[in-house]
């Protein structure tokens, strides 16, 4: 299924940070195109700009130059308030750390996301149904510190998809898990992505996780600092 409205496109992206030692070129990327409903894994050496790219796709930051478009919305042109609103309603994010709120139960952590996305009608029913589907219902009243690392990360996936986002962005979601738990988390993520027809962009260092996506994109090192002029920038990463 390729629903309209949730394609991810980036063009001519450059991210630079001024630092006391000179300008850091964090990312240089000519073109990225992900179809609506597609899953893509982004791989590449440490420091090549994978997290920076994900932050731009999420609308957490704007590029120094270039554009990011989600569906029909050029999010890189939105002012901060509009970007935050767009992100809350349309994006689901998963990080290496689960970032669950420690004083809230599993169902409260997941339910909170619905409220934030302002789609709170029948929140309890929606949360319950999702936890059932993901095999997490028995854990719904537990606090995060009463869960294993793998369980916490599956709850983080539930929280990322409960509001049926157009796009799921995941930054090393299995990075702190053993292979068996990593497998369960990626299963949960890809099952959920397909169930809601979302687009998935996943950053990982793990080839076996990357292979679960429809397509793998290798991002090459694109860093050039004034302090290290011998470092070579390699654009045209995709
Ligand atoms: N706020 C910042 N100020 C200066 N440099 C930054 C900033 N944020 C990131 N960088 C630099 O930009 C480059 C890209 O960082 P990024 O975190 O995107 O890489 P990555 O590919 O995700 O790395 P890793 O695989 O190690 O997580 C790095 O060299 C990093 O040091």
TrEMBL record:
GO MF term list: ATP binding
Protein known as: ABC transporter ATP-binding protein
Signal sequence, start to end: none
Domain of life, source organism: Bacteria
PANTHER family in UniProt: ABC TRANSPORTER RELATED, IMPORT ATP-BINDING PROTEIN
Record's keyword terms, sorted: ATP-binding, Nucleotide-binding, Transport
Pfam families found in the cross-reference section: ABC_tran
Domain ABC transporter: 8-238
UniProt organism field: Agromyces neolithicus
